[in-house]
Amino acid sequence: MNLIPILCTLAMNASPIDMRYESTRGLFVTVGGVEIVRGGFFQYYKGNWEKGLYSSNWNPQTVTRDANGDLTVVFTGPDRLAHGMMRFVRTASGVDATYTFGWRGTEPANVENTVGCLWATAFKGGEIRFSDGSSKVLGESPRPTNDPKDNSLGPDSSSVTMKGRIAEVSASSPDAPLTLFDARNYQQDFARDRELLWLGHNRLTIPPQGSVTIKVSMTISKMAASAPASETIKLKPRTGTVLSPTRLTAVIPAPRESIMSPAMFRISLDPKPRKDASEAVKLVMQRFADATFPESAIVAKVDPKLNVPENGYTVAVGRPIKVTGKDAIGLRMGLTQLGQLIRVNDGAVTLVQATITDWPTLSWRGAHLFVGPNALDFQTKFHQRVLGPLGYNKMVLQAEQARWKSLPGIYHANSMNLEDLQKLFAMYRSQGIDPIPLIQSFGHMEWFFANGQNLDLAFNRSIPYSVDPRKPGVAPILNKLWDEVVELLKPSALHFGLDEVDMRGFPGDQKLVTELWRIQIPMLGDIAKRHNVPMMLWGDKCLAPGEAPDAALGYNKEEAMARRQVIPKGAMVTDWHYIDNPDPRIYTSLEIFKKNGQFPIASGWNRLGNIIGFAQAAAKVGGGYLQTTWSGYFSEERALVENPEQYAAFIVAGDYAWTGRTEGPKQLGYDPLTALYERYFAPASPTKSVSGMQFGDSLGGKPVQIGPWMFDLIEPVSTTNELTEQGAKRPRELVFELPAKGVSRVGLAIQTENRLNRLEDAAEIIFTCADGSTRTTRLKYLLDVRAGSDPAGTARLPRQQGYSAVTLQSDKKIVSVKVRGLNTVNGIRVGGISALP
After folding, report:
1. Confidence (pLDDT) at 824
2. For 600-612, b where at least 16 C-beta lie within 10 A, e where not — what string?
3. At 34, which helix (H) or strand (E)?
4. Nearest to 30 by CA among 95, 121, 123, 127
5. Which of 53, 296, 571, 805 has the fewest CB atoms within 10 Å, counting from its CB?
6. How far apart are CA 562 and CA 275, in angstroms?
7. What is the DSSP letter of 681?
8. What residues contact 308, with CB distance under 8 A and at least 6 apart?
9. What is d(CA 491, CA 421) in angstroms, rounded to the nearest whole number?
10. Distance between CA 613 and CA 586 in Å, rounded?
11. 3-state secondary structure of 275
């Protein structure tokens, strides 16, 4: 199966240039079919980043394209202080850009302007030259950092030229110096899992009531390379094991107390799955498909007198196995923990005789999700497979997007119907989870003004973002809404939101914000008190700079203190901070809220250091932990697919909130994306090995298991890749011919040769059946595949030794499989093929 590389000649090619500008994502430039410029952004800020004033990442821009294909981008900030225009003109060899940044504020503002995020892979090993004559060769990815100065590639220059194996880019800016830094492994959101170099201006100063105009000229050329269109490879089968039972790569969360015996025993499984199996058996066998755990082998019960804290459990592995929970959550944890520990092979379970005792460190362990028309089905599955086995006991559901009878005019296509919302709350309660509704009731209220409704209650009618508590209609309509919420859902607490309440449409008067806060918070507190439940709120507007590592939006200590004073005693403050720092000592605000008489709940996001440090800080003050997600505003599986890291973070957060472990990110012991795949996406595992066909010339090593598939890995064959071996002449696509009678199922071990951007389309697989019908599957980077040199996991497919296992299945016989990369500078490698007749 080896392909003989044939060197091809490279030449400069004035390839056609295509450009586009996407609102909130920036400029994209493609040359000769390769995307060289991959987005960008600009940000207004005060002083030395004392305060962010405007970001193009979070505010839309208006983009128009004229008859020549040239682009005009216009923007205005929500408060109308930041404004401007950008013009991108396509030339024969590149793009000429003119940036005009205006500012209507009374003090100067600075702008960080990205000329382009350049695809670093195109320049790897190439030379970078600066206007002062200095140069540098772009090497391997630098170490992770949060400071761009650490990865500066050279001096600020009026011009920069980058020449790589497949492209050359020159940029000049006579009006302001250009900065170039290596953004690979840069730990800011725009660069995460992306192979980028950042080119731009890091500080343009705009005078009060003034503007600044900057011109930049870029020339971009691509090397030309040729490759054969296709190569067909006929496969010769041999018999071998192709499917085998799977096991989890890690037990999460690991039990805190276990006494293991050297004795082991086997339990034979019932050979067929039974639909009438007990809930206990279903939980234990959740990962397996073709057999059932015998009911007589397990005794499961709830015992409130069990000598462990709330949500704790014990497991005594013997004949029979005894699983006892302090409550419903404890029993579920014991059963799913048993399911993680069992090893299945040849239709039997192998167990180590042991006694396990476990309980959670934090008593309040919550997840934050949105609602939506598909939330009931998605969250039922996500809870069953991910959240439940991790021991979460609280669910904060952001529920503005529902068809509230008290606000009929705001409905839209994605509004959740109340019957399903009620069922969603009931589902959580049936599993021992306490669901809490969150409805923004001060700022972040764009939902309240949808379809032009309720504008008479807006603080700023032209920027309808917040209600004005001074208006007499605000309190009655919010009381009516929350009365409906309580009547329908019977919640144990009410979360009113209250973060970033003056982010849009306010004049910048913090004393006014405090005045309005003093009106709104007591009114909302009275709603909670009237319904005899505690109030919940985000805490950012009640913290001054220096009182927390970030998200301290209380302006100064005087205003922050004044706002804290009106929060009812006993309220729960979901104190959000998202800094990626595992040191628990920096999260000082939890103690501030505790001393103020509130119950502090550390609220983290999808950064490992943030979760790990914040969970430890919560344990030290006796608070709770809430894992937030901001993956769109409707809860459905698509949100998980588009933001897998945010949902993998629920696994890490559940682990640390339950166990109280203190190890840093490097000692996590598992890959979060792999753990997400195993718990959410993985199909049910067989309980017996299955023989089938393996293809290719064996390298003589041991078979490698990737998910359920067994591969005898081969010397990989690859599609074309212009970056390797001076453009080795490989085909654009590989066609594998299977035996003439065809097969029912195929497993492919696949990887990319180069790192791509997160969720970038990487490969296309097309299989053809005996009747001529075809089916196409697309693979995305990070979600499905990664480069062999990229050690991290994938969320939707299993991955081992650098390869992802792709399953192709049909009720018709498959006779051939075609693999193609979706750009010529990537290279798709096939390292193993197995099949079932």
Report:
1. 66
2. bbbbbbbbbbbbb
3. strand 34-38
4. 95
5. 296
6. 59
7. I
8. 314, 326, 330, 357, 358, 359
9. 12
10. 8
11. coil
Of the CA atoms within 13 Å of residue 47, those in its CB half-sphere come to 3
Residue 19, class by beta-carbon neighbours within 10 Å (0-12 exposed, 13-18 middle, 19+ buried)? buried
Distance between CA atoms of 346 and 349, rounded to whole angstroms? 9
pLDDT(649) > 50: yes
Long-range contacts of the stretch 780-786 (C-beta < 8 A, 24+): 781/752, 781/755, 781/756, 781/757, 782/193, 782/644, 782/673, 782/758, 783/641, 783/644, 783/759, 785/750, 785/751, 785/752, 786/751, 786/752, 786/755
Other beta carbons less than 10 A from residue 94's beta carbon: 22
Say whether 390 sits in a helix, a strand or coil.
helix
Q: Please check whether residue 541 is in contact with residue 553, taking contact to mean a CB–CB distance below 8 angstroms.
A: yes
According to DSSP, residue 540 is labeled: G
Task: Report the SS3 class of residue 541.
Answer: helix
pLDDT in the model for residue 728 = 59
- E strands in 503-598: 535-538, 572-576
Cα distances (angstroms) measured from residue 289 to each of 242, 247, 274, 341: 17, 13, 10, 17
Whether residue 618 is predicted with pLDDT greater than 60 in this model: the reply is: yes
Q: How far apart are CA 295 and CA 765, in angstroms?
A: 43
Q: Please, what is the Cα angle at 481 between 473 and 510, to 5 degrees?
A: 55
**Closest listed residue to residue 371, CA positions, set 201, 479, 485:** 485
The answer to whether 114 and 200 have CB atoms below 8 angstroms apart is yes
Residue 735 in contact with residue 764, Cβ under 8 Å? Answer: no
SS3 494: strand
Token digits of residue 211 = 């503007």
| pLDDT exceeds 60 at position 773 | yes
Yes or no: say if 440 and 524 are a contact pair by the CB < 8 Å rule.
Answer: no
Spell out a b/e string for 328-346, using b for 16 or more CB atoms within 10 Å of the CB, else e: bbbbbbbbbbbbbbbebee
Listed range (29-38, 170-179, 582-591, 782-791) with the worst mean pLDDT: 29-38
The token duo for 752 is: 């990319």
Read off the pLDDT of residues 5-23 as tens digits, 9 standing for 90 and up: 222 222 333 447 899 999 9
- Residues ≥6 apart with Cβ < 8 Å to 33: 15, 823, 824
What is the token pair recorded at 95? 């793009």
Question: 471-479 contacts: CB < 8 A, separation 24 or more?
Answer: 474/520, 475/523, 477/406, 477/407, 478/441, 478/523, 478/524, 478/527, 479/527
- DSSP annotation of 667 reads G
Closest by CA to 577, choosing from 561, 592, 597, 565, is 592
Q: How distant is the alpha carbon of residue 6 from its chain centre? A: 41
Note whether 180 and 198 are within 8 A (CB). Answer: yes
pLDDT (0 to 100) of residue 721: 78
In terms of C-beta distances under 8 Å and separation of at least 24 residues, what long-range contacts does 530-533 make, across chains too? 531/482, 531/486, 531/494, 533/486, 533/491, 533/492, 533/493, 533/494
**Torsional sign, CA 796, 815, 837, 834:** negative
776, 763 contact by CB (below 8 A): no
Strands 709-711 and 704-706: antiparallel
Tokens of 129: 């030259």
Beta-carbon contacts of 441 under 8 Å, excluding residues fewer than 6 positions away, are 467, 478, 482, 496, 497, 498, 520, 524
- Coil, helix or strand for 193? coil
Q: CB-based contacts of 353: which residues, under 8 Å, 6+ apart?
A: 260, 261, 263, 264, 265, 317, 318
- Give the separation between CA 124 and CA 141, rounded to whole angstroms: 9
